[in-house]
Amino acid sequence: MNQKEMSGKAQTVLGLISADSLGKTLMHEHLFIDISRLFMEPSEVDEKKMAYEKVRLENLYWVR
Fold first, then answer.
1. For the chain, what is the radius of gyration of the CA atoms?
2. What pTM does this model have?
3. Is position 51 within any domain?
4. Whole-number Å distance between alpha carbons of 10 and 22
5. Sign of dihedral through CA atoms 1, 7, 28, 31?
6. What is the percent of the chain where pLDDT is above 70?
7. Count of domains observed in the chain
């Protein structure tokens, strides 16, 4: 589908619809923010290990 065919339409999970039939909507943005430079490595050995683990349900309490 080219840009001209998409003009004046909104993409929904069900496909393209005309802007006129959209109705009231809530706008929101999807942002990607790199906060890695704010990371401060913990000084305690146990916490250092957790700081580099993948986030899982078991360590989510600590990440938060």
1. 22
2. 0.41
3. yes
4. 8
5. positive
6. 100
7. 1
- Give the H or E element holding residue 20: none
Decide which of 1 and 40 is more confident. Answer: 40
How does residue 54 score in pLDDT terms, banded at 50, 70 and 90? very high
**CA-CA-CA-CA torsion for 52, 56, 59, 64, nearest 10 degrees?**
90
Q: What phi and psi values does residue 46 have, to the nearest 5 degrees?
A: -60, -40
d(CA 10, CA 25): 11
Is residue 23 in some structural domain? Answer: no
Note whether residue 22 is domain-resident.
no
Write 58-62 long-range contacts (CB < 8 A, 24+). Answer: none
Asked whether residue 35 is assigned to any structural domain, the reply reads yes
Query: Percent helix, strand, coil in the chain (nearest 5)?
Result: 35, 10, 55
